[in-house]
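Entry 14. Ran structure prediction on the chain below.
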Amino acid sequence: MSFQQGLSGLNATAQNLNIIGNNIANASTYGSKTARAEFSDVYAAALGGAGAQAIGIGTTLAAVAHQFTQGNISTTENPMDLAISGAGFFQVTDGMNPPLFTRNGQFKVDRDGYIVNNGGLRLMGYSADAQGIIQPGKSVELKLPTAGVSPSATKEVLLEMNLDSRRDITKPAGVPSIDFDDAETYNNATSLIVHDAKGQEVALTYFFQKTATDTWDVYATANGVTVAGTAAAPLPVTTLEFEPDGSTPKTPVPPLPSLDQIPLTVSAGVNAQGAETLEINMVLDVTSATQFGSAFGVTDLRQDGFSAGLLTAITVESNGIVTARYSNGRSRPAGQVEIANFRNPQGLQSVGGNSWARTYASGDPVAGVPGDGALGSLQAGALEESNVDLTGELVNMITAQRSYQANAQTIKTQDQVLQALLNLR
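Output, C-alpha cells:
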C-alpha cells in the first residue's frame, strides 16, 4: 500500500465536496445547472507494461460535467423575465468579445434602451425596422424604441352593417332632404372617430335614410358639419341600392365609384376639444352592407388612422418577438430574440455569472428563433429554476464525506505499517 493512493483519494474527494457545495450554493440561482465530478483511475506507465498484475496509484478528477436538464419554470411579476422551455441558450454580449450563452432570463432595460442581464450584457436577436418588420439574418444587440409612434391620418373607413328592410321611407318631400337634428328624417345613424395628419380626433357620423324600396342614401357629418353639400342642402356621400334579396348592394353604374372606394373629404374644422383639425381625404368601404328583415346593426366599423402614442409596455411572445405597446392602442414588433443550441452543451466552458462560452469541444452554436426545429420556446414573465436536486446533493455530500474518511484511514494504516517496519530489530 502506498501513500499515493490515499492522497489522491483525499484530493479527489475534496474536489467532489467542492462541486457538491457549489451545487447547493446555487440551488436558488435561476438558470444554474448542476455539476458532477467524474473520476478516472491512474496507473503508472512502465517500460514493457505491468501486465495483469498492475496496481493503480490512485484516482484523478477527469471532468466537471454540467447537467443541462430542464429546470422547473416559475412565474414572476416581471414581463422582462424570460424562460426557455426546451433546448437552447440566450445569447448575450458586451459588444466587444464573442457572445456568451446563458439560461438565466432575468433581463431588464438599461438607460439606453438595451435589454440587459444583471451583468450588463446585452441580449441578442433580430432587429425590426420603423414599420415593425423583423429583419432576420445577423444577430444584433436588441434595443427597444424610445421614441413614440407618429400619428397617421385616416385613409380608409370600413362599414359592415345591416339595414332593416322593414323600415319606412323617411326622406322628406321638400328641401333640405335631411335634417341631422330631426330623427324623423332618417332611419339610423352610427359614429366613429377618425384622425387627421396631426392625429387629432374628428367625430364622423353616418346617417342612413331610406328613400325607396331597396334604396338608401348615406349622409355623413364631421364635427357636426355635413361632409357633402352645404348646411342648407346636404348631399349624400353615396346611395346604396340592394338586390331584391337584400344580400349585397348593386355595383354602381359608372361614373360612380365602386362601393369599396367611395371618396370622402372631411374639410378642416374645429373638433370637440376646440382644436383646429386638418382636411382628411379618405375612402369608404360598404361592400359588406346588407338589407335584411332584421333590426339595424353595425357588425364592424373601423378606420386605419391613429394619434401619436408613447411607449407604455413591452411583451415577449413565445416565438421571441418583442412587441412594443403604445398609449394610442397600437402595437409594433421591436425585435425578436434569437437563441442558440450546441451539439455538445457539456463542452461549454463556465465563465461565471450564469454564463458559458463556446469551446472547440462544444462546437459552433446553431442559432434560430424560439420554437423552430429543436429549439425551445420562450415563456415571458417566468424564470427557469436551478435543476439542482437539493436532497440528492445532501446524500452525495454524506457519501463523499465517508469516502474522505476512508481515504484518510488508508493513509493512517500505511503510517502504522511503516512504523512497524521501523521498529523491527
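The chain has a mean pLDDT of 89. Will compare against last week's run tomorrow.
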